[in-house]
Write a structure and sequence with these properties.
19 helices, 65% helix, mainly alpha, 508 residues
Length: 508
């Protein structure tokens, strides 16, 4: 996230230049936010329906994974990001600033690079879901499912939607933010509520549940290959670090922010759990498809209530939600690395902007990478396998960034112990920070390791190809910022850059 990662509904609530806030934060400049407001913002930033089928594979034990990931990742990320965001509220850089103040500019650059590249790799996966949604606009289930599985169709739609989003982004953030808000409502929140409501109507109406609610809540952790899809749940919760900036916009943040975090976490988990169960109720576990099952689930429910004409409408709504989310993300992380790049961390070519100040060349480079990645449709055994392997690579890269963030939060307690902290984990001492960041770090590390294991549920082709893509992808993507940093030249610094120096630079 977004995102959360990288969810399809993520709304970037502020740009990384921190020169201009959008959506709710504009309102909060004059009116302090309450607990409920921030909780809803957190939910909107994280929740997406795209990943529900992946967890529906686990039946009743999916609830365990959601709760576990919330405790060891979602909540720690929220609290740690809140302290760091409040600590550096008047300085540019986001995660670049947080990690850089702790471990130096090189690792800071690695962190924000991973945040940008991770989102770039994520686009084909979320757009695959958009392509599948559009395929279900028709009224013939067999034809719709066949079209959704067609590699050429998926490739064309993915590239078309992405480049449309890119060209719109070049027009500036104003209009994009409006589309994102509407898309989050129409493409995620309303469909999520509808899915749960349909499941309730189905059960009350005598429908037979395909999910065994008498199964084991706790999973069999001895089968590591079954845990891979579960590790992807961490990405469901990604993006929470972006809402931490709003901690200073609250009344009495030391008390109200934790309340908002826990309330938002509860609502988020409930939506994910109930949404996953709703799919499991209508689709047998053996028939779950990672890219199609959400649409198939809606189709089956609409048939049950004899309102099949609603299927194309929900398909369009979900596709619009994807477009809105991609629009926002295309502009967001690229804006962050653009601001950092102008401080001398990227060559002048990547600092070029159009007359509206939009990072033109970065967006075009980003588009080229997305296009090349999308061409993997041709060599992967199926749309589903392509979706899964890119999803796993996205998880790996984002988790490296989170590992750096959690470690930085602890280190800064000692390296900048006297710095003002408008929001602080624990009234005194560092014990609570060690606990919260430590749990987040270990949880992220566990998910990172598990993400390398090929999933048992999906035909991903050759295991050698699976490992090669993930290992080589991690090495190349993580190594690139070190190479770029070593190649820096003095003339790379933009004369108009107003990037605040790090604390250790001021001391020199």
């Amino acid at each position: 996230m977004q995102p959360n990662h990288l969810s399809g509904s993520i709304v970037i609530l502020y740009d990384y230049n921190q020169q201009k806030r959008i959506t709710m934060s504009t309102f909060s400049k004059t009116v302090k936010m309450g607990v409920a407001t921030l909780a809803i913002m957190n939910v909107t930033a994280v929740v997406s329906l795209r990943g529900l089928p992946a967890e529906a594979e686990y039946g009743i034990s999916s609830a365990f994974y959601y709760l576990f990931a919330a405790l060891v990742f979602l909540i720690p990320t929220s609290f740690v990001a809140a302290e760091l965001a409040a600590m550096f509220q008047d300085k540019q850089g986001g995660v670049f600033r947080w990690v850089g103040e702790a471990f130096g500019k090189r690792l800071g650059f690695v962190a924000i690079w991973l945040q940008w590249v991770e989102s770039t790799i994520w686009y084909p996966t979320v757009l695959t879901f958009g392509a599948v949604s559009l395929a279900f606009i028709g009224m013939n289930d067999t034809a719709d499912m066949s079209l959704a599985s067609n590699k050429l169709y998926t490739l064309v739609v993915v590239l078309a939607i992405y480049w449309i989003a890119t060209f719109i982004s070049l027009k500036g953030l104003g209009w994009v933010s409006k589309v994102a808000k509407v898309g989050g409502l129409i493409g995620t929140i309303i469909p999520a509520a509808l899915l749960v409501l349909l499941a309730i109507i189905y059960l009350i109406g005598g429908g037979k549940s395909q999910m065994d609610f008498g199964g084991d809540f706790f999973p069999d952790i001895t089968k590591l290959d079954n845990l891979v899809l579960a590790s992807g749940i961490f990405l469901f919760y990604a993006g929470m670090e972006m809402t931490g900036i709003h901690v200073k916009d609250m009344e009495n943040p030391s008390k109200n922010y934790p309340k908002a975090v826990f309330l938002g976490a509860i609502i988020t988990v409930l939506i994910f759990v109930l949404g996953t169960f709703s799919l499991g109720i209508i689709i047998p576990q053996k028939d779950i498809n990672l890219t199609q099952s959400l649409l198939v689930g809606f189709d089956n429910y609409f048939k049950f209530i004899k309102m099949s004409w609603l299927s194309p409408i929900i398909a369009i709504a979900l596709a619009f939600g994807v477009l809105a989310g991609v629009l926002t993300w295309v502009s967001g992380p690229s804006k962050g690395i653009f601001a950092v790049g102008k401080a001398g961390y990227l060559p002048p070519f990547m600092q070029k902007s159009n007359k509206l100040g939009v990072q033109k060349n970065i967006l075009l480079i980003q588009g080229g990478v997305v296009t090349l990645l999308s061409l993997l449709f041709v060599v992967m055994p199926s749309v589903q396998s392509f979706y899964q392997i890119l999803s796993q690579l996205t998880v790996l890269l984002y988790l490296i960034m989170y590992l750096l963030m959690f470690a930085a939060a602890i280190y800064l307690r000692y390296n900048m112990k006297d710095a003002p902290r408008p929001f602080r984990l624990g009234k005194s001492g560092n014990g609570l920070m060690w606990l919260v960041s430590g749990v987040g770090f270990l949880g992220s590390l566990l998910a990172f390791v598990l993400s390398f294991i090929p999933p048992a549920q999906i035909a991903v082709g050759s295991n050698a190809v699976w490992y090669a893509v993930l290992i080589i992808g991690c090495i190349v993507v993580t190594g690139a910022p070190f190479v770029i940093y070593a190649m820096r030249k003095p003339h790379w610094i933009d004369k108009d850059s107003q990037f605040e120096p790090f604390h250790f630079e001021k001391q020199q």
